[in-house]
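Review this chain:
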Amino acid sequence: MTWLVTGGAGYIGSHVVRALQDADLPVAVIDDLSTGLEQFVPPEVPFVRGTLLDADLVRRTLREQRVTGVIHIAGFKYAGVSVQQPLHTYEQNVSAMVTLLKAMQECEVNMIVFSSSAATFGTPDVDLVTETTPTRPESPYGESKLIGEWLLADTARATGLRHTSLRYFNVVGSGSPDLYDVSPHNLFPLVFDMLYRGETPRINGDDYPTPDGTCVRDYIHVADLALAHVAAARRLQAGEPVEPVYNLGSGTGTSVREIMTAIRKVTGIDFEPTIAPRRPGDPARIVASGELAARDLGWRMRHSLEDMVRSAWEARQRAGDAYPR
């Protein structure tokens, strides 16, 4: 009953691997290390380095590791960059998923948890996003994630594949001091890296129609996210019903200004962020309800904003000069 985590050497994937271990579920990892770090994979976990575009490698991995289910996290995750690199984005997120699903079908692996994205919603016109909110992705990245959900639904109709997709927003924090976010585009790594270099972080726009003028988003702790993946895998494994899509949201949201205040408090570094112009396409508020996931997956926000910042900062400090830039 081995679960294969694609992208299991990445920031999110490595936390999912450890959550599976804590749940006593056998796990293996496949990752091309384009953004992941091999050191994030525990030494006792079987690790295959390679791309999901390599159909022979994927089939061989499924068979040799006796895989019965897949948690598919691997992908190109940078929405802004995807606008400049649409073909690369579709290759990594759509072509690779087609290859994976074909290999699963050939190897009779019929369970998958898909790491989708809130980018499928684009700029919603509601205060609180639910699973029934219309999807209007505004980037190749968001489009590719939505196509991934369609691929699962179509394959399920044809083959009986059991699946669910988890849509989430901004993942932060660390569940272990040796695991950290290495993304050059995410808010926490950007701010921490600037503080580490003695520079002043910035806020992109403070004139939005929000309580403090800065954008409001869902920020969820990576360890909470990992538990939701494990809960989804358990339900599939037990043959229990699942929804095709779950939102993993806070229901309330946090502003960028509130994030900066929490970072200042936790790090002890006294700074006042500079205000830069708005970034094109940034909506004022995107916040999701997590009620459906709470009902089926035990989803809840177990960590406060300070917990998120403190755990991420501790991991960043531990990485020190070894942190990839």
Notes: The chain has a mean pLDDT of 94. The longest strand covers residues 162-168.
